[in-house]
Design goal:
Blueprint lengths: L26 H14 L5 H19 L3
Length: 67
Amino acid sequence: MSIDGAKKHGRGRPRVDSEPVNVRVDRAMIEAIDRWRALEDPEMTRPEAMRRLVEYALAVAETSGKK
C-alpha cells in the first residue's frame, strides 16, 4: 500500500452533529452559572453547565406549554 492510499486521520475533535454558538453574557449571569455548576458538579465545565441549563429550560417550557 502506498502512502497516498493510506487512510488519513483528521486532527482535532471528531465531527459531531452540532455547531458552535458564540454568546455574550454579562458578568452577573456568568457568576450565577458558575455558582450553579459548583453545586451540581465542580468538575463540570462552563460550556457543559450552559448546555444543561438550556436543556432544563427547554424541558420546563415544553411541559408548561410555553413556546
